[in-house]
Write a structure and sequence with these properties.
- This protein is an all-alpha fold and 190 residues long.
- 89% of the residues lie in helices and 0% in strands.
- The protein is built from 4 helices and no strands.
- The chain has helices at 2-28, 39-127, 131-170, 177-189.
- The longest helix is centred in the middle third of the chain and has 89 residues, at 39-127.
- The protein is rod-shaped and about 170 Å long.
């Protein structure tokens, strides 16, 4: 009987052990992330991974990104400054061209005024002499005015072509003489 009692006790112990093993195997078959007994280990490795990622980003990746962004910003700022400088130079060249054109017009008007004054003086003196002499002098003066105007317009045309060529060259373009001549001729005509 003692041996039967022992056998029963062993059987009960085996049954209890089997039930505990089944419960343990049910826990082992679940998700390991939800196993509370391994939380400290999981938290430790999570912190190690986060610290490693932070270190990699702060020491390697972010300084490189920052350097690239700073380089781009510097390039953009330099390009904008260069563009502003070219714009200012173009405006100065245009102002110089307009001034030269205005000066040429003023000179032509001055010459025309001087010539008219001379003609008027000659006409006043020549009225006493003869109408034929007045007509001859008037024709001569008109011819000189035409020559002066033609010379002034030719000078304005040449100054405009030279200035346009210099502007194109200053802006970094290739100065094509035929294109510049066509553009200046179009501008002077209207």
């Amino acid at each position: 009987m003692a041996s039967e009692t022992q056998d029963m006790a062993h059987a009960a112990a085996d049954a209890a052990h089997g039930a505990a093993g089944a419960a343990h195997s049910a826990d082992a078959g679940g998700m390991p992330q939800l196993d509370f007994s391994s939380f400290p280990n999981q938290i430790f490795w999570l912190l190690v991974a986060l610290v490693a990622i932070y270190w990699l980003l702060s020491r390697i990746a972010l300084p490189r990104i920052e350097a690239v962004l700073a380089d781009r910003q510097g390039t953009i700022a330099g390009d904008i400054a260069a563009a502003e400088d070219f714009k200012r130079k173009a405006e100065e060249a245009e102002a110089a061209y307009e001034k030269a054109l205005a000066d040429a017009r003023a000179q032509a008007q001055k010459i025309a005024g001087e010539t008219r004054a001379e003609i008027q003086k000659d006409l006043d003196a020549a009225i006493a002499k003869a109408d034929a002499e007045i007509a001859a002098r008037s024709a001569e003066s008109e011819a000189r005015i035409a020559e002066i105007r033609d010379g002034a317009m030719a000078a304005v045309d040449q100054v405009a072509k030279d200035t346009a060529g210099e502007i194109v060259a200053a802006l970094g373009g290739k100065a094509d003489a035929s294109s510049i001549n066509a553009a200046v001729d179009t501008r002077l005509k209207g």
